[in-house]
Description:
A: Rossmann fold; 6 domains; seven-stranded parallel beta sheet; globular; B: alpha+beta; Nuclear Transport Factor 2, Chain: A; three-stranded antiparallel beta sheet
Amino acid sequence: MNLALLQEWLLTDGVADDLNELVRRTVADEIDNLVPDEEPRPQLDWPRLLLAGSTLARSQTRTYQEAALRIATGALTLGASREVKDAGAILCEKLANARAVTLADDRGYLESNLHGRLGVAMRLEAERRKIDQSVLVRSSGDWLPVNDFQLRFWSSAGDHGWLSASAPTASGKTFLVLQWLVEQMRSGAAKVALYLAPTRALVSEIEEQLQMLLGDSKIGVSSLPLRDRYDASLQGSVQQILVFTQERLHLLANAVGDAFQIDLLVVDEAHKIGDHQRGVVLQDAIERVERANPTMNVVFISPATQNPEELLADAPPGVGTTSVDSDSPTVLQNLIVAEQVPGKPKLWRLTARARSGDLQVGVLQLASKASTLRKRLALIAAAAGERGGTLVYANGAAEAEEVAELISQIIPERGLDDELTELADLARKGVHRNFRLAPLVEKGVAFHYGNMPSLIRLEIERLFKGGKIRFLVCTSTLIEGVNLACRTIVLRGPRKGKGRPMEAHDFWNLAGRAGRWGNEFQGNIICIDPGDQNAWPTGVPERARYPIRRESDAVLDRGEGLSDYLNRRNTVPLSELAREADEFEQVGAFLLTTYLRLGSITRANFAKRHDASALEKIDVSLSELAGNIEISAELAGRHPGVSAVGMQGLLNAFRAYENDPANLLPAEVESFDSYDRFVTIMRRINEYLYPAFEPDSAVKLHALIVVQWLQGMSLARMIQKTIDYQKELGREIKLPALIRNTMDLVEQTARFKAPKYLSAYMDILNLHLREIGREDLIDDGLDIGTQLEFGISSRTLLSLMELGLSRMSAVVLYEKIARDDLDKPACIQWIEERSEELEALEIPAIIAREVREKVRIQKGVSFQ
Amino acid sequence: MPAHPISLGPMHFAKKGDALAYLKQLLYKYDLGDRLSDKDAEVLMAALNRHPDAKVKIGPGVADFSVRTADFGSRCFWVNRTDGTTEKFSLNACVWH
């Protein structure tokens, strides 16, 4: 019998019964409020199990490794004797899982001096393993313990120009990539590094982690696309890590121009190159950086993907490529389904889905009858995850708030906590005095969604990680790339976005967050009502990995639709193309820009993946469009996702405009005309560029939000003004929805659509003004895109954000600063002079903490 | 009732209705948020001078005029004063007074 056969036999026959019993016990150990088991459990044969575990650990197959990890974890946490626990620890080490051993040590499962108890041969072997499973961080001289995936990443990353790394959540990807990035900077291998992350939430998280890793080093970290800072790092000795979304990258590249130098590019959540509408903007960003820096190093990171090598397909010729792929588990992930015991609405049967089939874990006792679906989610989460670290997935922000409210009513009270009180204070002052989050966090419950101000969201995440927030109800923001792990995740009929059932790979990307490697031994995924067709149309998904497919490739392969759209794009009004525009406009714009740059899309990098005759057909449509376009490829390339056809239409409209061209410009935000001017500009954008601010009846609201945002108004004031306005009109106020809608408008309109389309508007307008000899009207100051992205219009506010402050903190502080023209050093001085009095100025404690921390970091960077 | 001719700066109208129609056409010649050209401002200044509250509306002096929204989403001429304040005014009041 060879090893593979032996391993298969062990699982299916050899230790199958013992393993099943082990699954039952380890899972039951994780769940609170189980009805006590009356029957005695069978004994486990530990020596036999551990021997099987050490055989299974030699396999690279996920199922075998999982079984070995289950045995190791069971031995550590359930084993009755010191010998069994020691053997469990050694088995963990064999699985390259040093963090689990450290955790067992911290929790007191192991007696000290484990290696001292081993025989000489085993001790030597353990030492060798320790060396094999560590990497040397040259800049600090430290040895970093790593798992197999991390080891392969570390040894490959230096040797290849382009690398694509894929591993399941909780494999320590981000941790290691950040370590590696810092190492590259410290060793001088890179002067300017760019870290692309798909969401602002992830950008803030990565920025903060990098700052913590770098400490007071000379290396700067910035998420602001500001030219001054970039120029300073190129000219001087200051190294920079830029952490941007794809949109921010384009803002900086537009400001800097062709000579945009980047030595090292990291693309996080790189599978999002396939996302509808923003995928192509990411692809464009990567290609743009690559065109300017053909020799830079590139690292792609993605969660469990089927084909990480796909991201390397467009590497420049001659550049070495490699992919590092892993499917190994680092923590046990228990997939558990919950079904009501017939006729007993307070009792729910929990069943673990194991390789060998379904295993009964026990019966969960709820505090109350689960009479509605939301109550069901709340009650099951509150009971099963009472000890905390429990994440509940809700479909949408409104549902998240309601479920959190329900949970808060059931869970046992705990005393007041300073940090929770401070967060509640921030929620009340930063959003609204009746914001639902505030009373909830005081009880250790929170909700979390994408449009929330980042300072509040980050604090929620921090307190959840630290255990003070015990229940967190979240939305699909978590699949969009926030690195937040949990102990238990509870779901019922998860949807992605508006109503679309979650696909298997999205489900597993989310579910994969169960299990905090190094903090817990196991993670639990509890799926409610697995047999309900409405909740789970295709059942609870089997483990699956993302297929990586560029949005552009997917659209190109859709056949006739794209050509038809392009053929009609110049002649049919956009309002009549609405449905097709949603599908084809972004990629169509990308193709047209490519055509303008290369003269044919058959010369593009992506051409090798498509049928030549199909591309030639699209070329014909593009050539037709290009015949009417005077917009240069360079100008079109500055605005990914905005079609050159639309830009030309807008240019034509400017040329036909008969009044004073000064009226085409946005007015100063403080002026009386500003709001009305934005109304008109947004209507022009809707008519010529893209119907981004439709329907027309909503334009005024969009314009109002944009003006308030640019005026540097706080979210709290914007919400209060909307309330006052609604009251004036005699309308009923539904506060939770009003708060959510305002947050949504800020994020989606003021910070996403408005910068995208207003940047293009201004570029075309400036072109027109130069054509008619009115350069005097062109403002060379901070571009409108950057102003909108950050919601700033004064030098002081910009300087405060340059310190790395969140907008919320910057705005609160700006309200206390009289002058609007302070530069960064002047802002630091203002803060330092009042450092001890911030709370006395009625600044919320969390904001005061952020302010002091950022000033400390800035001083460290500036004065070393 | 006999028609009353009316002059607004360089513009002369056979009757007040024509003057009002001209001003309204002027109002819609612009987009929301636009400032008026000097030529059109001259006509509008003459109209504003006829307003029953002209003194209050003009205040310390007129810098220029804008087209902006007013209550209930309607479109209106606004006078921007030299002291940085602004106020809307009714064309009907300017013409029929």
